Structures are given as C-alpha cells and as structure tokens.
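Here is one chain, start to finish.
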Amino acid sequence: THKFGVGPGAVRFIDGTFSYHVELEERIARFVKKPAAKIFNSAYTANLALALTINHKQTYWIGDELNHNSIIRSMRIANVPRENKAIYKHNDMDELKKCLDNIPSGMERVVVIFDGIFSMRGDYAPIDQIVKLVEPYNDRVKDGVITVVDDSHGIGAYGATGRGTSEFTGAQPDVIVGTFGKAFGVNGGFIAGSPELIEAVRQKADTYIYTNPLSVADCAAAIKAIEIADSVEGGERLRQLLNRTGQFREGITALGMESIPGHHPIVPLLVRDTAKTHEMVNRLYEKGVLVVGLTFPVVPRGDETIRFQINAAHTEADVDYVLEVLSEFRK
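Its structure:
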C-alpha cells in the first residue's frame, strides 16, 4: 500500500494493471491447474463476466437447480432467453442427460454450469460423472459442451491439497470460477480456463473492462494466501480442518440430529421447523456460538436448516463445546 497506493487509479486496459495483478493471475491458474486466469473484484462479477463473454443467441445453458444466485442472475443479465436454458434436479445425472438429449436444434454451444460445493448444504457436484456424461454430446454442437464449476466454497478447503471439488472428484471441468474471499480470506474472484477463453474474457467482459480492479494490497494478500495454502503449513491447516469437520459431523450424528452426509466444513443441521430454528439459533448465540438459520423463503418450508461452518482455527475443545450446547436440543 505504501508503494502502490490504496487503489489502482484506473481500469485494467488503461493503466490500472500492476505486476501484482499479473502475478496473482499466474499463481491462481497454477494452483487450480489451468493454463490461464483473470481476476475480478468478486466471484459474483467473475460469473457475470463469463456469462457476458460466452453467451450468444445460439448458446444453450444447463444448470443445477441449486446453483448460486450469482450464476442465476448472471444468466439473466446476459439476456439468456428462457428457451435457451434448462434446469436439472439437484445432482441428478439422469435429469442432466435428459437436458442434453433435448438440446434445441440450431444451438452452436452448450454450457453446463454448477456449483462445486453447494453453499447452503455442503454437498458437492459429481464433476467426474458430469464430465463423462457430457463427452458424447461434444460433437453435436459446433463449439462443443463447456463444463463450468463455481468452486468458491471448494478451492482452498476441499480435496487432498485444497484444490477443490475437481481434485476431490478426480476430474477437471473446462472452466473454474472461484473466490479469494472464502478459504483464502481476502477479496476478489477469478475465472481459470484455456488461454483462448481468458483472452475472450479480457476483450468482452464488462466487469473486467469497465471497472477498477482489485487493489495491489488485495492482490499481494491473495498471493500470500495461495502460497500458504500450497505449503506444508497449509497442508497441516487442511488436515486440522478435516479433523474438526469430522469430529463435528460425528458428534451431531451421535446426538441423533439430521444432517446431509459429506466431508465439507459447511455442515447443515436440518431442523425442519421455523420456530425451532429461530429458538436454536438464539440459544447458540447466547452461548457464544455464531451460526446462520435458514428459513423460508431462503429454503422451502420443511427444509429449515442451521448452517454451521468449521474452520482450521477451531480446536477440539471448541467443537466439543458446540456439541454440548446442541445436546440441549437432543431429540
């Protein structure tokens, strides 16, 4: 900040690009194992940039019904018409195949887009199955099928080395969108993919061209965060996170409480009652435990949930304490 100032002073294509912007793009591309990347002020603006870049009148979009708001809104802002999109039931590969089988004639490009980790549930997209499923359809449209994952909740916190849902499932989608604002604890988002795609983003995406970029300080912090994540220290933090997550998940199961199975540190506690959800959230807060209660209209009636999120700084004693508080509500 002392050397470069608080803000960039201009958009990227004029004179707002600093060496730290370029270095961060190179570092995050290497981290997620893609040849190129572009950074943005958030993953939300990254998703919008991608939609504005690759959408045209002959683009057909297929998405999971539980996709993040930023994906849904980006498609609307990019003026994707209703007839050019299809939604499949959450993680339902049979439904996805039906969508692929029913691609309208005249389409030149198909985009299959989904969250890596679904932020309200903590479950993951079966990227390996999706990539395999779309393969036979590549020759049916001029530009093929592009698989896109928004792995904002996976990058840095999931997979053997923290490289996200792609690493966990052992399969690479064509494009990865992510954030520096979750596991890395900084600001910003990114798109990673082929050099051709990233060059198209640079030339066409409004949220890249017409707005100031991340500050140099944000970039430097993100670079350092990636460095830590990719180090021995980062590996130890990831192991600590996995252990504490496992401890908490096992604990709520032992209490007879309902959750969605998985390994991710986002752990949903299914309460299925609005009044009880509010009661539990308030009681936890009184006891010094910060959680988020999800009720209608955020989730359907009957799916009321308390969202817990474990992090690497939590200790075994911390998790035991939360489970002790939850035991007051044992069925």
